[in-house]
Design the sequence.
């Protein structure tokens, strides 16, 4: 570091620390960088710091809601993701929505927003969730509850692993219209497509964290080590998706039904219907898989863990689910869960518990833009052309200036306060997305938020109604690993017990 400085709005200039002191502090905090940044942001008068590391791009990190609103909305045009970001992800994501700026982004956003708001997609998602939960997720937990292998007479399950497999199957079925079967007990190893995504995402996360981009760029040019592996894994993904596009087109040509062949509602098929070029479709669906895969499983992993720590909240969530189930007791339509999207919208306690989980453990821990031109943020921080500007969800969730003195506590009250009482809260629980940018905010806000909440609620209801999960190591507070999307270090190993007698799910 040349300097770490905390920014001030009143013209006092940033506070600088001596070069050596800063380097030492960085070294000392290398295993707890997120918390260290959070502490520095909390100590800054405007919750903004400037990191000026020797040989690296000047970086403004902010947890200030006015700055975040300015970056994500007020001066949106000046804060694209930028080439340094799109370079890192470009080999995998190509020109998919997640990885482009300007006109290319705008055109995709329009198309994709339309698709995401379509009733057909919501119906498909609910059908996929039901099938995946009933056929795979619940039987996997049932099997664990049946096997007296672990402590207390129940088998140990890594919930993080189970939830990641589940999420990959769901997002593949919704995006590609195929079921990779990650949770299928008959498949001993992860399907090739899932492992290719895993490996590629891991290598790309390391690219993003590399102190000097030139190193991975040289390795890529020479096809060495991890970069060679990445190239091979991306090839597997690209070929699999292209094969699907071609076979789907053939199928469409052969099927001649009354709808003109439009028999599938997955995103890939719908994009074929819209007449997009094969490579455009490929890049778009890869972006959806990346965006929709590990985010929900990360949030759910922390959610289940937090409930084991907060039994009163667990009881409140269960009461709400049971009350909703009672309303459906006489339904003949009950196939599996019996809940529909309307029910999920009414579940305020569950919504609050999920929102509160993501406040403390956001699936995307930070997000960076690159300034197209010089600017001054609302708190007075100067931004130079090309500077990296990072808003920091993890730190914002823990800022007392935003959440009050009990910011560190897991408490649903902040979401269930009378001001937010309405029979159906909106997806952010009524809190400004610039104070709580877990799904980003402004024109580029997450397109899958509704879908994500539906999925998380579906899984929470299905699992909690039937099973009691308890961590194998009750005393452990797991570490938060921010990677491309956040993980729980070491997974979430739990024992599974049935709450009710075994019956057909
Ligand atoms: C708890 C779950 C989720 C969280 C916390 C989340 C969060 C985010 C965040 C922070 C961004 C902005 C990232 C960036 O621009 O670099 C984003 C973008 C996006 N998300 Fe989500 N997401 C979730 C689930 C989903 C799901 C299930 C989908 C569905 C496929 C999805 C689709 C997208 C898309 C397409 C974008 C790009 C939007 C654009 O650039 O215009 N997300 N999400």
Sequence:
């Amino acid at each position: 570091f040349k300097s770490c400085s905390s920014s001030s709005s009143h013209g006092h200039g940033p506070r600088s620390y001596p070069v050596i002191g800063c380097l030492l502090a960085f070294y000392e905090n290398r295993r707890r960088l997120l918390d260290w940044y959070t502490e520095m942001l909390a100590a800054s008068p405007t919750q903004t710091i400037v990191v000026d590391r020797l040989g690296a791009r000047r970086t403004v990190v902010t947890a200030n809601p006015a700055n975040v609103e300015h970056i994500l909305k007020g001066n949106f045009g000046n804060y694209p993701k930028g080439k340094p970001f799109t370079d890192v992800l470009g080999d995998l994501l190509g020109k998919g929505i997640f990885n482009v700026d300007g006109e290319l982004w705008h055109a995709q956003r329009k198309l994709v927003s339309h698709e995401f708001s379509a009733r057909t997609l919501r119906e498909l998602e609910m059908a996929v969730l039901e099938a995946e939960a009933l056929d795979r997720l619940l039987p996997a937990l049932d099997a664990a509850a049946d096997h007296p292998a672990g402590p207390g007479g129940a088998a140990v399950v890594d919930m993080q692993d189970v939830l990641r497999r589940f999420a990959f199957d769901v997002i593949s079925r919704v995006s590609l219209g195929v079921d990779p079967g990650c949770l299928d007990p008959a498949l001993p190893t992860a399907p090739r497509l899932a492992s290719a995504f895993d490996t590629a995402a891991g290598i790309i996360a390391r690219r993003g964290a590399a102190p000097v981009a030139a190193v991975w760029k040289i390795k890529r040019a020479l096809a060495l080590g991890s970069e060679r592996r990445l190239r091979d894994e991306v090839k597997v993904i690209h070929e699999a998706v292209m094969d699907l596009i071609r076979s789907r087109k053939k199928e469409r040509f052969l099927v001649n039904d009354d709808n003109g062949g439009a028999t599938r509602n997955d995103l890939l098929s719908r994009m074929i219907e819209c007449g997009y070029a094969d490579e455009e479709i490929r890049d778009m669906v890869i972006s959806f898989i990346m965006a929709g895969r590990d985010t929900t499983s990360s949030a759910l992993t922390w959610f289940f863990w937090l409930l084991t720590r907060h039994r009163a909240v667990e009881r409140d969530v269960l009461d709400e689910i049971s009350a909703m189930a009672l309303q459906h007791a006489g339904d003949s339509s009950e196939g599996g869960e019996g809940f529909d999207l309307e029910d999920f919208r009414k579940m305020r306690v569950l919504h609050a518990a999920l929102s509160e989980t993501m406040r403390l453990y956001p699936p995307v821990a930070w997000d960076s833009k690159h300034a197209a031109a010089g600017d001054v943020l609302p708190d007075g921080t100067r931004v130079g052309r090309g500077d990296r500007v990072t808003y920091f969800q993890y730190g914002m969730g823990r800022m007392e200036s935003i959440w009050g003195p009990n910011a560190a506590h897991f408490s649903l009250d902040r979401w269930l306060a009378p001001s937010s009482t309405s029979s159906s809260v909106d997806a952010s629980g009524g809190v400004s997305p610039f104070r709580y940018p877990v799904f980003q905010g402004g024109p580029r806000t997450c397109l899958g938020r509704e879908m994500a909440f539906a999925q998380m609620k579906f899984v929470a209801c299905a699992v909690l109604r039937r099973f009691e999960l308890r961590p194998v190591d009750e005393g452990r507070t797991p570490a938060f690993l921010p990677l491309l999307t956040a993980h729980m270090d070491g997974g979430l190993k739990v024992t599974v017990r049935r709450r009710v007698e075994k019956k057909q799910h």
